[in-house]
Design a protein that fits this description.
The complex is a heterodimer of chains A (451) and B (382). Chain A contains 21 helices and 2 strands. Chain A has a two-stranded antiparallel ribbon with strand order 1-2. Chain A is extended and about 100 Å long. The N terminus of chain A is likely disordered. The longest helix of chain B has 17 residues. Chain B folds into 2 domains: 168 residues, Periplasmic binding protein-like II (D-Maltodextrin-Binding Protein, domain 2); 159 residues, D-Maltodextrin-Binding Protein, domain 2 (3-Layer(aba) Sandwich), CATH 3.40.190.10. In chain B, strands 6, 7, 8, 9, 10, 11 and 12 form a 7-stranded mixed beta sheet that branches. A 3-stranded parallel beta sheet of chain B has the order 4-3-5. Chain B is α/β, with parallel strands linked by helices. The chains are: A mainly alpha (451), B alpha/beta (382).
Chain lengths: 451, 382
């Protein structure tokens, strides 16, 4: 044991720090190192028994097979011993333990990069980097970093890295066969021509801008509709007795149990020419109007109108109905969670001070529910802007929105650079909308505070 | 602690002493390339234990696959795709593992140019003799160096039997583009294919141009024609229009692939009257013919088995079983005697010679593909 019985009796005279030895960080790091050691031992075992068991080789083993078999033995053996030594050192509080561990982490990080360059094995390299990075965080005793590392690393690898790839592709140029080439370094203007293309005319018409505007308009309209209907619902639920609120919120969430696509198809069955609404329209209403048609001009007109089904599906309105239905719960939930916490006595106080209903709403309730309102609006607006399935199915693929334009670039036309540029511009617009929203709400709050 | 270090070094020493090991002979000698030991043999071909087939949805009688498995002891892994572009994107993204794929004509040309297909030798496939001369040596794959024909079809107009407007078949593209006719039929519903080449070529046929034109003025004329007609069309659908729109009578007229129209015919078939509700006609101005093919991706590691399977698909009984299931005409001449006579005598599936003469291939466009893309974006974005 590193901490001797003597040191308990008398204060330590040496510089050996007491906290070094067996704190939680070093224990966690040691466990991590032990699993690494087990991994190397496993790989070593596989390597030694290849001729006997005929394993399916890993990409790493194919890379190593290029050299003499001794290289693999030396590499695995070195890493195994190193990891074991560092782990044991950490567990026993030995001085070289942390240093060995740090060096091990650094070596695996660099090694993983080198391995990726040589072997092009993305998954293997990512796993090694993940373990090395976590080890580094643990050994440097950064509690918050260690806890945040797994999810941060996940986002980095599966969000930021793909984003970077999309950006690089957006700089390229599409060939006739749909592959991507990149213009020469000198020709800088050509790098961004896909971004310029969005603002250009096609056949005398700003077609892409028009699609952008149409999508933004639809998303705004949908957000406004959801707000208009979602706010009263959230308010009503929040004013229910506490024991019933959860039931209502539960009911709001029930549609999520069914796949969105299935719900969209259900709407199509309701709205189509031979659907529920038009069956009533051209069926019983028509029969009634025909029976009464002699009596007045109104019924004559109605009989004529009901002879044909209403054009309910495959147009802009149908897309809006589908989106509104799909996103209403996303508006209700954040609004409810803010309204639920509202101090209703403030409204009573406002009433006592002579504020009428409208004033109580605009001056008290609305500012109080602003956070939920903003959150709900963003959650509804952003996916509506990129909506793809609903316009395709309920719009009959006639209403072209940003999502459809994007899909078309990646699948039918196979212009990946333009599709990537489009998605970047789309992201910029969404980011701008979010920022403006937050800025505005922060300003509003500040103004409220000043008063 | 020292002991532990010692054990570590000992381990290392032991490993070094063992020497040898690793996948011997490097990656080339990996087990993936070796034929499985226990697989059966037929003739001179050594078959693999498994074969991965990637086909269109509902495009083969799965009994055909089971028969192959039983006969040759090969397990078939079957998967489906929705469009040629899906297939290409998957292959380009490096999805290895597929051994047999079924791309359409124009896609074969692109895949050959991209080097995605493995060469085959049709002279080594005895059943290739069953294929009709008309279907051999197609323009997209001269000399059948990469593919064998699978099934073919035409693009035309499907229409609702019994609608008062169709006393004679609507055998002209005018039914999709002429304002007077559109006024008459659009209240009852018209669908067009959501397919760039098909829709533009329909307009080009109507205007009297070649479906493979690369002339910008002609293409812009086609675009204006389509844009003028677009408000009258109910939907752009090329995926499930026959099941969701045609069978449920949401529309009375549709730009359609012959096989899909046949599916709608049989789905609405009435045993008493012996009539289906949907009929198919080829417009007099001319129409597109297409052909789906059997090919092997260059990345396939089981090419010998894949070639064996290709030969099996061209057996007369097998080709007939597929046509009896899919209602697509077979290029296989020897299969005719096994095909259901009702299918053979249906002019909407097996067109007479004078109709066949009017059919044209969609050919590779070269750089004009950019004009087509631009026009398609304008059509869809308006």
């Amino acid at each position: 044991m590193a901490v001797s019985t003597e040191s308990r009796l008398s204060p330590p005279t040496t510089a050996a720090p007491l906290t070094r030895g067996r704190d939680a960080f070093h224990q966690a790091a040691a466990v991590l190192l032990l699993t690494q050691a087990a991994l190397w031992a496993f790989l070593l075992f596989r390597w030694a028994t290849f001729s006997r068991f005929n394993w399916t080789p890993y990409p790493a083993e194919l890379v190593l097979a290029e050299w003499s078999p001794l290289v693999a033995y030396a590499l695995y053996g070195l890493l195994l011993v190193w990891a074991l030594a560092a782990a044991v050192g950490l567990l026993r509080g030995a001085v070289p333990g942390p240093r060995l561990g740090l060096a091990y982490a650094a070596v695996t990080l660099v090694g993983a990069l080198v391995y990726y360059v040589i072997g092009r094995d993305f998954i293997g390299a990512v796993l090694v980097v993940a373990a090395g990075g976590l080890l580094l965080c643990l050994l440097t005793r950064h509690a918050a970093w260690s806890l945040a590392f797994p999810s941060a690393f996940w986002l980095l690898v599966f969000f930021l890295a793909p984003l970077a790839i999309v950006f690089v592709v957006s700089l390229g140029e599409r060939t006739r066969l749909g592959t991507v080439t990149y213009p020469s370094l000198a020709n800088l203007g050509a790098w961004f021509d896909d971004y310029v293309r969005v603002f250009s005319r096609v056949g005398g018409d700003f077609i892409y801008l028009r699609i952008f505007a149409r999508s933004a308009w639809l998303a705004l309209l949908n957000t406004a509709l959801c707000l208009l209907f979602g706010f009263p619902l959230a308010y009503w639920i929040a004013r229910q007795p506490a024991n019933r609120r959860n039931t209502w919120i539960f009911l709001v969430m029930i549609p999520f149990w069914t796949n969105f696509l299935v719900r969209t198809y259900a709407w199509m069955l309701i709205l189509r020419d031979s659907g529920l609404i038009n069956n009533v329209w051209t069926g019983s209403i028509h029969d009634l109007a025909v029976a009464l048609s002699g009596s007045s001009g109104l019924f004559n007109w109605l009989a004529d109108a009901t002879a044909r089904p209403l054009p309910l599906l495959y147009n802009f309105g149908a897309v809006l109905v589908g989106l509104f239905y799909g996103y209403l719960p996303f508006m209700v939930l954040p609004l409810y969670s803010t309204l639920e916490k509202t101090n209703w006595t403030l409204l009573e106080a406002a009433a006592d001070l002579g504020a009428n209903g409208l004033r109580r709403f605009t001056r008290v309730l609305l500012p109080l529910s602003l956070p939920g309102l903003i959150a709900g609006s963003i959650i509804v607006f952003i996916p509506s802007l990129g909506a793809y399935v609903t316009p395709d199915l309920m719009g009959g693929a006639k209403v072209s929105l940003l999502g459809n334009l994007l899909q078309q670039q990646f699948m039918t036309v196979r212009d990946w650079p333009f599709g990537s540029a489009l998605s970047f511009i789309m992201m910029a617009v969404m980011l701008a909308a979010t920022l403006v929203y937050f800025r505005a709400s922060a300003e509003a709050e500040r103004r409220e505070e000043k008063r | 602690m020292k002991k532990l270090y010692l054990i570590g070094f000992l381990l290392l020493a032991l490993a070094l002493a063992a020497c040898g090991g690793g996948p011997n002979g490097g990656p080339a000698g990996g087990p993936g390339d070796e034929p499985a030991a226990e697989s059966g043999t037929t003739g001179e071909v050594q078959l693999d234990a498994e074969l991965s087939v990637y086909n269109w949805e509902d495009y083969i009688d799965e009994q055909v696959l089971r028969d192959y498995e039983e006969r040759y002891g090969v397990t078939i892994v079957y998967d489906t795709f929705a469009s040629n572009e899906d297939l290409l994107t998957k292959l380009q993204a490096g999805a290895a593992g597929y051994d047999v794929i079924f791309p359409s004509d124009y896609m074969v040309a692109q895949m050959i140019e991209l080097g995605l297909l493995a060469e085959i030798d049709v002279s080594a496939m005895p059943n290739f003799a069953n294929i009709g001369a008309e279907f051999k040596d197609p323009p997209y794959d001269p000399g059948n160096r990469f593919c064998t024909p699978y099934q073919w079809g035409m693009t035309g107009i499907a229409y609702r039997r019994g609608h008062p407007g169709f006393e004679s078949p609507p055998d002209s593209w005018a039914y999709l583009f002429e304002p007077g006719l559109l006024e008459q039929f659009s209240p009852d519903g018209i669908n067009v294919l959501n397919d760039q080449r098909e829709l533009i070529s329909a307009a080009l046929f109507y205007l009297g141009h070649s479906p493979n034109t690369t002339d910008r003025a002609e293409l812009e004329e086609a675009r204006d024609l389509i844009l003028a007609a677009k408000p009258y069309w109910k939907t752009f659908n090329s995926e499930d229009y026959y099941s969701t729109l045609m069978v449920s009578d949401e529309i009375v007229l549709s730009h359609a692939w012959s096989g899909d129209a046949a599916q709608a015919f049989w789905a609405t078939f009435d045993d008493e009257t012996e009539e289906g509700n949907w009929l198919f006609t080829v417009p007099v101005e001319g129409a597109v013919r297409y052909q789906d093919n059997v090919c092997i991706p260059a990345s396939s590691t089981r090419q010998a088995t894949a070639r064996h399977f290709m030969n099996y698909l061209m057996e007369a009984e097998v080709a007939a079983a597929i046509t009896n299931f899919t209602f697509y005409p077979s290029p296989n001449e020897a299969a005719r005697e096994f095909i259901d006579p009702e299918i053979l005598n249906n002019p909407g599936i097996y067109p007479p010679a004078e109709v066949r003469a009017k059919l044209q291939w969609l050919e590779d466009l070269g750089d004009a593909v950019f004009i087509y893309d631009e026009i398609w974006t304008a059509i869809k974005g308006q």
